[in-house]
TrEMBL record:
Organism superkingdom: Bacteria
InterPro entries reported in the protein's UniProt record: DUF3429 (IPR021836)
First and last residue of the signal peptide: none
Stated name of the protein: DUF3429 domain-containing protein
Alphabetized UniProt keyword annotations: Membrane, Transmembrane, Transmembrane helix
Record PANTHER family: TRANSMEMBRANE PROTEIN 69 (PTHR15887)
Length: 144
């Protein structure tokens, strides 16, 4: 990728974290009546599915070069994200999504080590996923 494309990718990724941060701030401000849990969990499931789609695409285009079967892992994680929305206990929903985000990050670490994704992309994923996981953990804590 060219430098300007990387800058755009980083900016858009940072913007993508805003709903998670906003959910935490809304919960702290006592605005739970705006359904912060539902909104953050729904957005989380969308993002998990989006990241799973990246892995699915990598598998389709470079299947022989991958040690991980990204086709299977991406589908399992997307389905787990969907399943998290069907449960009625927010803490369990958040924990499932946190597990999905950690799993996606571990897969990305392996992909970076294998040279399947560029180092800048893995660093970006590490930073933003860490922020998202912290936000989700805070939302679990704030539920009590």
């Amino acid at each position: 990728m060219q430098r300007d494309q990387i800058i755009w990718a980083k900016a858009l990724t940072l913007l993508g974290a805003i709903p998670f941060v906003a959910a935490v701030l809304a919960q702290i401000a006592g605005m739970a009546h705006y359904h912060t849990a539902y909104l953050s969990l729904t957005y989380g499931a969308i993002i998990i599915s989006f990241l799973s789609g990246i892995h699915w695409g990598l598998y389709i285009t470079h299947a022989k070069a991958k040690r991980i079967n990204l086709l299977v892992s991406s589908n399992i994680l997307a389905l787990l994200a969907w399943l998290s929305l069907l449960l009625l206990v927010p803490v369990t929903q958040y924990l499932i999504q946190i597990t999905c985000f950690i799993s996606l990050l571990l897969i990305d670490r392996q992909l970076a080590a294998d040279g399947a994704i560029e180092a800048w992309f893995y660093q970006l994923r590490l930073q933003i996923s860490s922020l998202v996981i912290i936000c989700l953990l805070l939302l679990v804590w704030l539920q009590h």
